[in-house]
């Protein structure tokens, strides 16, 4: 969920959601032995050389069915990112297994779907596969079943009096299922169907399970114009050098690779094609984990495999985007129930986009200025509890104006601290401290203003952050301009306001908001490269005084008729909005 407040923007974005084509790898779901221990996964960069994940241990133990097996696991991923798994639960049962997951690690409660319970004579449900048609937004689950006497012309042609045909059910939600129906009768005993949608056609690769009078045990293909048929007669064998079953197909680069279990040879085989008509045997190029049996190929985001390999946390990356002293009408995105005249003065397209994608609050509670609100965000306490009720700066000195008639109540004028006993401070566990414990890299960029000068709280590194860029005790910058070194010295101001840590931008024609954004994006890139989940607290000094022109946008607002002061203020707002857009764009990349 993304949240937008009057002066606060929170982005909660998982990098997984932004995987690009070049970030994809291949995943193979399979079982070993008889399927007692459950779901196994392997990955590959090229679809040929496969490496076991989790040291070839199971990711999901079977819990349903009388035999509690997990054979022939088939996984797909729907457009919403959910993984759906079906499997064979038993050698002789009238149902199949189903579960779903968002990350292939944490799974829903396993379900037993009684797809053939209505057939009293049905012997089994073997090798179910699941397919999702994006055009119809419908699932189809199909499998092979023997119903004695149903196809008498081929009775006695299979092993153990089996005479399989393929059946299916459809569903919109994997909760309610349409009536079971025959999917395909090729005129012979057949199992292990797998579907491929290619253009406007559907291809079904399947095993000819004929054993008598002449053994077939080979892989063939049929074609249809609809997911549920009617299907063409099966082709001549694509592969018949030895007995094969469990075909699965994936597009790897410019070619299709059809992999299958050469179960009598205790190895896997593969055929390659560029047109799905002419096939070349490339079995000698394959490498699978030892003991791999019948499974399915799936193309996934690299981050999915990174999570499975334990290289990346399932925790989402978190960004707190904080804007200082911005009025609730100072954006082109209204934060009221209706647009005001001031909303029309500003151009903030990235705030508009964020509001469309997430949640916008039109009513909120606001803390007092600067330090109180920041400490509330750090601790979860409101100002009445943390007792920092005004902005902090100098140790043991209140910024409250003196009044001979009224003495303000004592408050924590030194802000917040950790560990050390500092008078007039609040001590509490901070959000970055908690996130650190969960493996987050916590990054502070911009205005801090948590504690007074000379106290531990003036440095964000003492409050749980791993990185601090430009944060110190002061609540405003000496200058927003790189040409002034972000210092107040150009106007004879005190160095107490000088922004620290940005020396490499000194003397440059750059606005402070832009420099902070560059630094923030660099830290995001480092965290992603290190495969750490990150918490970025990006707190702009803008729109706090002193008001200075952001040259990138100032002239535009003058041309629109705003006064010089109004154009200055508006340019600072748009510069901040540009920062939001740059951060969002970097996350998408």
Describe this structure in words.
This protein is of the alpha+beta class and 589 residues long. It has two domains: 287 residues, Alkaline Phosphatase, subunit A; 234 residues, Glycosyl hydrolase domain, family 43 (Tachylectin-2, Chain A, 5 Propeller). Helix content is 14%, strand content 27%. It is built from eight helices and 28 strands. The strands form seven sheets. The protein has a seven-stranded mixed beta sheet with strand order 23-1-2-22-28-26-27, sandwiched between helices. α6 runs parallel beside α8. The N terminus is likely disordered.
Give a quick precis of the structure.
It is built from 8 helices and 28 strands. The chain is α+β, with helices and mostly antiparallel strands.
Keywords:
alpha+beta, 2 domains, seven-stranded mixed sheet, 14% helix, 28 strands, Tachylectin-2, Chain A, Alkaline Phosphatase, subunit A, single chain, 589 residues
Task: Show the helix and strand layout.
Elements: E1 3-4, E2 8-13, E3 24-31, E4 40-44, E5 51-52, E6 71-77, E7 83-88, E8 96-101, E9 111-113, E10 126-133, E11 138-146, E12 164-171, E13 181-184, E14 190-198, E15 201-208, E16 218-224, E17 245-252, E18 255-262, E19 267-273, E20 280-281, E21 293-301, H1 302-308, E22 317-322, H2 349-357, E23 359-360, H3 371-379, H4 383-386, E24 416-417, E25 426-427, H5 431-437, E26 441-446, E27 467-469, H6 512-529, E28 534-539, H7 554-559, H8 564-588
Parallel strand pairs: 1-23, 22-28, 24-25, 26-27, 26-28
Antiparallel strand pairs: 1-2, 2-22, 3-4, 3-21, 4-5, 6-7, 7-8, 8-9, 10-11, 11-12, 12-13, 14-15, 15-16, 17-18, 18-19, 19-20
């Amino acid at each position: 969920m993304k949240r937008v407040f009057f002066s606060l923007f929170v982005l909660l974005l998982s990098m997984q959601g932004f995987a690009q084509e070049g970030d994809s790898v291949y995943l193979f779901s399979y079982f070993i032995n008889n399927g007692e221990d459950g779901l196994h996964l392997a990955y590959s960069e090229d679809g040929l050389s496969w490496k076991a994940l989790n040291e070839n241990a199971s990711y999901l133990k079977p819990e349903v069915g009388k035999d509690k097996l997990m054979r022939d696991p088939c996984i797909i991923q729907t457009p919403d990112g959910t993984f759906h798994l079906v499997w064979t639960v038993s050698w002789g049962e009238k149902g199949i297994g189903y579960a779903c997951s968002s990350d292939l690690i944490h799974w829903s409660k396993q379900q037993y779907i009684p797809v053939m319970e209505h057939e009293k004579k049905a012997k089994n449900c073997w090798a179910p596969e699941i397919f999702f048609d994006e055009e119809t937004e419908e699932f189809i689950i199909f499998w092979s079943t023997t119903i004695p006497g149903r196809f008498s012309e081929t009775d006695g042609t299979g092993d153990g009096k089996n005479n399989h045909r393929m059946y299916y059910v459809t569903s919109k939600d994997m909760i309610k299922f349409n009536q079971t129906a025959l999917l395909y009768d090729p005129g012979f005993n057949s199992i292990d169907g797998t579907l491929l949608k290619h253009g406007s056609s559907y291809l079904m690769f399947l095993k000819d399970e004929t054993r008598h009078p002449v053994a077939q045990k080979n892989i063939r293909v049929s074609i249809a114009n609809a997911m549920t048929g009617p299907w063409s007669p099966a082709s001549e064998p694509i592969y018949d050098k030895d007995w094969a079953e469990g075909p699965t197909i994936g597009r790897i680069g410019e070619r299709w690779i059809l992999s299958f279990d050469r179960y009598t040879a205790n190895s896997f085989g593969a055929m390659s094609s560029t047109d799905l008509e002419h096939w070349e045997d490339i079995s000698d190029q394959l490498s699978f984990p030892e003991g791999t049996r019948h499974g399915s190929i799936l193309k996934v985001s690299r981050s999915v495999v990174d999570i499975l390999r334990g290289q990346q946390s399932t925790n989402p990356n978190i960004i707190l985007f904080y804007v200082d002293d911005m009025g609730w009408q100072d954006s082109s995105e209204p934060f009221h129930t209706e647009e005001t005249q001031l909303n029309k003065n500003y151009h903030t397209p990235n705030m508009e986009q964020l509001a469309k994608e997430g949640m916008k609050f039109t009513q909120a509670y606001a803390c007092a200025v600067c330090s109180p609100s920041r400490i509330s965000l750090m601790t979860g306490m409101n100002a009445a509890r943390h007792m920092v009720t005004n902005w902090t700066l100098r140790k043991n000195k209140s910024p409250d104006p003196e009044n001979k008639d009224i003495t303000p109540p004592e408050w924590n004028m030194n802000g917040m601290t950790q560990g050390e006993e500092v008078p007039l401070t609040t001590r509490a566990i901070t959000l970055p401290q908690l996130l650190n414990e969960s493996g987050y890299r916590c990054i502070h960029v911009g205005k801090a203003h948590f504690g007074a000068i000379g106290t531990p709280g003036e440095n964000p590194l003492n409050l749980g952050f791993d990185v601090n860029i430009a944060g110190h005790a002061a609540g405003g910058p000496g200058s927003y301009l790189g040409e002034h070194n972000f210092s107040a010295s150009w106007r004879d101001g005190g160095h107490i306001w000088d922004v620290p840590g940005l020396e490499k931008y000194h003397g440059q024609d750059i606005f402070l908001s832009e420099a902070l954004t560059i630094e923030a994006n660099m830290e995001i890139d480092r965290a992603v490269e290190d495969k750490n989940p990150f918490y970025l607290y990006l707190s702009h000094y803008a729109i706090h005084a002193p008001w200075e022109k952001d040259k990138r946008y100032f002239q535009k607002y003058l041309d629109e008729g705003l006064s010089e002061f109004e154009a200055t203020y508006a340019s600072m707002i748009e510069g901040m909005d540009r920062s939001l857009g740059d951060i969002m764009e970097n996350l998408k990349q």
